[in-house]
């Protein structure tokens, strides 16, 4: 256990959105401006740009999230102001929960944690695509690194049965190249093949592009880890080339 007594350091867990400064909140920018140390995955630190070039940066590779959190607490224990950056929103598939768990594990009662929200891919991707999440929706990640695939399948079936619009994170990778196909096959057990869908690649970054399609077409779409997928509910439709899920207002 680390000695955290009588320390005054604090940690801001910052959601940086897609990474572009214009898409960060003022609160996030202020937290980064005031930080003595910024901790994060190397790719996210590279997105911060020249504004924070004079800051002390600390990073760990992918799959070393626990060590990254430990670094943040070690710096805070020195009395420093620390910002832990996360892509999108820190509390949506981000580091916020792990930071609280680590605080408990380390006995770091003297270290304050503040979570600063950011624009997650579900909302930024939805804006690029149109209005696919304008009614009840859920967010499901297809990554089985931390969640068993059997549980992911259960959640997909439950979402389809409940007629939710769905935002799908992490739809494919080199090791999971067919996971979106598997997910679409599960959804097609309940949803019609012509269900309105879409996907957005590189949200808020250079090369951003969006596509609308049917659920049948989505099954064979070329996607990657930089793509967010949207599956409409039974009322969703394509309007003027955009994916729209009506809220139900009378016209």
Helix content: 25-40%
CATH topology of the largest domain: Methyltransferase, Cobalt-precorrin-4 Transmethylase, Domain 2
Give the C-level CATH assignment of the largest domain.
Answer: Alpha Beta
Average pLDDT level: 94
Overall number of domains? 2
- Rounded to the nearest angstrom, the radius of gyration is 20 Å
Per CATH, the architecture of the largest domain is 2-Layer Sandwich
CATH superfamily of the largest domain: Tetrapyrrole methylase, C-terminal domain
Largest sheet: 5 strands, parallel
The low-confidence parts are: 1-7
For the terminal residues, how far apart are their CA atoms? 62 Å
Secondary-structure element pattern, one letter each: EHEHEHEHEHEEHEHEEHEEE
Give the neighbour order of strands across the main sheet. Answer: 3-2-4-1-5
Estimate the strand proportion.
15-25%
Structure classification = alpha/beta
Q: Which labels suit this protein?
A:
251 residues; Cobalt-precorrin-4 Transmethylase, domain 1; Methyltransferase, Cobalt-precorrin-4 Transmethylase, Domain 2; 2 domains; five-stranded mixed sheet; 13 strands; 29% helix
């Amino acid at each position: 256990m680390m000695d955290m007594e009588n320390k005054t350091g604090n940690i801001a867990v910052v959601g940086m959105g897609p990474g572009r400064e214009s898409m960060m909140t003022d609160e996030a920018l202020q937290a980064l401006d005031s930080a003595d140390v910024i901790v994060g995955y190397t790719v996210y630190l590279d997105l911060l740009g020249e504004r924070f070039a004079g800051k002390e940066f600390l990073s760990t590779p992918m799959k070393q999230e626990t060590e990254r959190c430990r670094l943040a607490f070690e710096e805070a224990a020195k009395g420093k102001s620390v910002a832990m950056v996360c892509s999108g929103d820190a509390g949506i598939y981000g580091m916020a929960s792990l930071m609280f768990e680590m605080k408990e594990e380390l006995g770091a009662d003297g270290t304050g944690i503040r979570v600063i929200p950011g624009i997650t891919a579900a909302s930024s991707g939805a804006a690029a695509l149109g209005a696919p999440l304008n009614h009840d929706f859920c967010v499901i990640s297809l990554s089985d690194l931390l969640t068993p695939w059997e549980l992911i399948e259960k959640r997909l079936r439950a979402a389809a049965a409940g007629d939710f619009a769905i935002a799908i994170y992490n739809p494919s990778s080199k090791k999971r190249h067919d996971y979106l196909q598997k997910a679409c096959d599960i959804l097609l057990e309940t949803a019609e093949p012509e269900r309105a869908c879409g996907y957005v690649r590189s949200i808020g970054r250079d090369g951003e592009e969006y596509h609308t399609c049917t659920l049948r077409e989505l099954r064979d779409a070329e996607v990657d880890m930089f793509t967010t997928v949207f599956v409409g509910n039974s009322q969703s439709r394509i309007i003027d080339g955009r994916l729209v899920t009506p809220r139900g207002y009378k016209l």
